[in-house]
Amino acid sequence: MSEHQGKAATPLSDAVRRFLVEMKAPGVLATIGRSGGPITSAVWYGIDGGDIIVSTPEGRTKANNVESDARVSFIVDSRERPYSGVAIEGRAAIVPDPGGVGWRAIATRYLGEPLPVEILQRFEANPRVLIRITPLRVRTWNLPEAQRE
Fold first, then answer.
1. pTM assigned to the model
2. Using CB atoms within 10 A as the burial measure, which of 13, 103, 127, 141 is most buried?
3. Domain residues of the chain, as ranges?
4. Top-level CATH class of 14-141?
5. Residue 2 and residue 36: Cα distance in Å, rounded?
6. pLDDT digits (tens, 9 = 90+) for 62-84
């Protein structure tokens, strides 16, 4: 039995949620590949309720890995001194993205409105799904507000 199997979701604190919303740098998603080793990808992300969402083309390696093994790790850091960040270990699921609502919200978060034509064309060229990450363990560093919650 895996460490996180059956474990309840861990809510994101206000400080963590604020940090994740304010950060516009990509996050890093680690999934477990076919060989059993980790595979990392830089990803744009959004927050939906207490979950992290990532958009990917249907059938891509990230999506296939999550289908095979739902255990993931996700990290976002400030990339500037003094470094601060959030690391999340979680359980992921592939969910449909009807009408591209999820990927559009994520792309708009990074690029603003209107979305560039080349982004629209690229994202609309392939059917997309969302990877919904439910946090099971949340660790932070140098988020002073998180220490007080």
1. 0.89
2. 103
3. 14-141
4. mainly beta
5. 13
6. 999 999 999 999 999 998 888 99
